[in-house]
Amino acid sequence: MTAAELRDVDRLSDRAPRVSPERLVAELVPPPHFAEARFETYVPDPAQPTQAAAVAALSGFAAELSSPPKKGLFRRAAPTGPGGVYLDGGFGVGKTHLLASLWFAAPGPKAFGTFVEFTNLVGALGFARTVDALGQHRLVCIDEFELDDPGDTVLVSSLLSRLSERGVRLAATSNTLPGALGEGRFATQDFLREIQGLSERFASVRIDGEDYRHRGLPLAPQPLSDDEVRAAAGARDGATLDEFAVLLAHLASVHPSRYGALLDGVAAVHLLGVTPVADQNAALRLVVLADRMYDRDIVVRASGVPLDQLFPDELLRGGYRKKYLRALSRLTALAR
């Protein structure tokens, strides 16, 4: 592919999207990757009975939401069951699939988003307007509640408290801390501690199992050559092509709340010269981008090091271990 032909391929590093607060609210729905998620499409591992039990528990929660108690004259009646449910398990056991299934089974109005998306919403609207925007919902689902960021954890915990006071039912999964039970895989007590006054309103549902994305499969495919990546980008509609180092630098100039918009219309991301990312800030931005790509089922083709070598050992041993492992799991799946 010639230099002239390369200029015809879109680059993520040329994009500078702007996202309105209204779009942030409107997009609080399960991402495209989970658009077809239903309890019926979740396949429990027969060797892990907690998975089938989780489906039953969440189905019951959804059924209760579908026939709520009658409201009083001025406020919503208190729920007869738990005000919230927390899905506790390692990455790749289907927590997001089940959370999305709950959202689809529940009556509206309702909202679904990641922890980061809700913190971004508060940043865009302000705390009071966010409470008002979500306060009339029957259900708010928060995926990957982040237990490793104290400031944002307090913010979202306060948001959940205000919503709960208004009768909103809640569901959450969490980003567990390393060093917790099962080497960061289970963190019910961490979650309940962080949401403090809400803890007695949550029922915990534990989900054991292996990462389904890699059951019996190899880790990352072998990287392509630079020429192969360029050729693949030039041959596909909706493709982008970026030098990896240039894209990393560009991500620092785009707020993570806009990474979804950064990928508007993109079907495949092509990266040249992938190298390990040792800088933690750059690595965390890449984690958010990986999540947004996974949400949209965007194919990844890359040259350089294999994607499972993206984060060095010092990062994988640190405080954000689970985020990095989740990103590696998802990027590897997209690269297949």
UniProtKB/TrEMBL annotation:
NCBIfam families: ZapE (NF040713). It comes from the Bacteria. The keyword Hydrolase does not apply. Keywords: ATP-binding, Cell cycle, Cell division, Nucleotide-binding. Gene3D superfamilies: P-loop containing nucleotide triphosphate hydrolases. GO terms for cellular component: cytoplasm. PANTHER family: AFG1-LIKE ATPASE (PTHR12169:SF6), ATPASE N2B (PTHR12169). SUPFAM superfamilies: P-loop containing nucleoside triphosphate hydrolases. GO terms for molecular function: ATP binding; ATP hydrolysis activity. Pfam families: AFG1_ATPase (PF03969). One of its GO terms (biological process) is cell division. This is Cell division protein ZapE.
